[in-house]
Amino acid sequence: MKPIPLLRRCVGLALVLFAAPTGWAAEKSLNPAYVGQIFGLTKLHRIEIVVPAASLFRFQDRNAARVRGTISFDGTVLHDIGVRQQGGTFLPYVGINGKPSLSLKFNEFTPGQELFGLKKLILKNQAQDRSLVNEHLTYEVFLRAGYPAPLTSFAQVKLNGIDQGIYLLRKPINQQFLARHFGKDRSKGKLYEIVQDIDPVRFPERLDLKDEQEEKRSRNDVRSLAVAARSATPETFAKVIAPHLDPDRFITYFALETATSHADGYANNTNNTYLYHVPIDDRFIFLPQGADQSFWAAAKPKRIYAPGQLRTAGSLARQVLDSPELRKKFDAELHRVGHAPVWDKDALLARVAEVERLLGSATPSARVTSDIAKFQRLRPVIEAFINNGGTTGGTANLP
User: Fold this and answer.
1) pTM recorded for the entire structure
2) Would you say 248 and 240 are in contact if contact means Cβ atoms under 8 Å apart?
3) What are φ and ψ of residue 78, in 5° steps?
4) Are 141 and 260 in contact, with CB atoms under 8 Å apart?
5) What pLDDT, on a 0 to 100 scale, did the predictor assign at position 177?
6) Mean pLDDT lowest for which of 2-11, 166-175, 350-359, 381-390?
7) Where is 136: in which H helix or E strand?
8) Strand runs (DSSP E) across the chain, as ranges?
9) Residue 15 — very low, low, confident or very high, per pLDDT cuts 50/70/90?
10) Among candidates 297, 15, 46, which has minimal Cα distance to 147?
């Protein structure tokens, strides 16, 4: 028997590592109730949230503290939930009439309270995702590749009786997310957030580390990752980084960002990414979030993902492309995730049609009409991007 070439072995290994049911069914196989009840895409959800008038001045400020509120989710009512506005530093907080993004924590004031087993939910106004579906489709591609990513669905939302229009519901990346994807014994590792050009290789001390003070957590793990990456040459990078970061998994993440033209993620903009140190495995994995500026290559050619032309590419992505060994793996993985069964054009186009059906069931209002008009205007662009196989031209033409 002839030995299997190294590249074919690596691609085959990736297929084994990431083999999983497609789409949201990957988490449904674990049978949490919220998957079907909140993220099943069987209907456009109806959400009504009420925040007491006396709390609105706190709610409308940039404040991490939550205020008490009540939610009705498809008729299921929860009282004393925690509500605050959600968004990054560059997104202004808006008044109650301005369609704010929301972060809901159901057990903030009532210990043990959950919505169909879910402890927390993000409601995104999609101000940066005018098509409404870019982020949704991006995570779908990640999940189809067997890579951990948030589940999403859609809802029509009212806040204090004001119709806010269509929102994307997103499962947050928290311990509950980590337990579902990695198992309970791997869910209590250290979770770092990468935002605003704070690259873990260049600025390990500036990353936001969840529960760093409360649990007196050390960041020696990310310091070691940074030291290893800085010390590596293109020829030694794969070997030097392997004890800290699985190169094959990172290449899959990098390829998925590339294929979906995720312009505001780690590799392209050093932003909107979680870096999770998995217990027991003792290595890092990258997790996507904030993928609302993606699926745009067909509409804005200047934003087509081209690693050799990035403004502020993530250091690790650059080192992958500089490594002769890993660059070949990246090219092969980019080809894999850009074709069926991961990039299944029929399945992705059907998902766009399904979203159209959901939007068609919304209760008419001025804001709903505006949201649906944006979706309809950009739908041909999204479908063209899907039919073109995303941004999967490989790296042969790059500097």
Assistant:
1) 0.88
2) no
3) -125, 135
4) yes
5) 94
6) 2-11
7) helix 134-144
8) 45-50, 67-73, 76-85, 102-105, 120-124, 152-159, 162-170, 190-194, 208-209, 273-278, 283-288
9) very low
10) 15
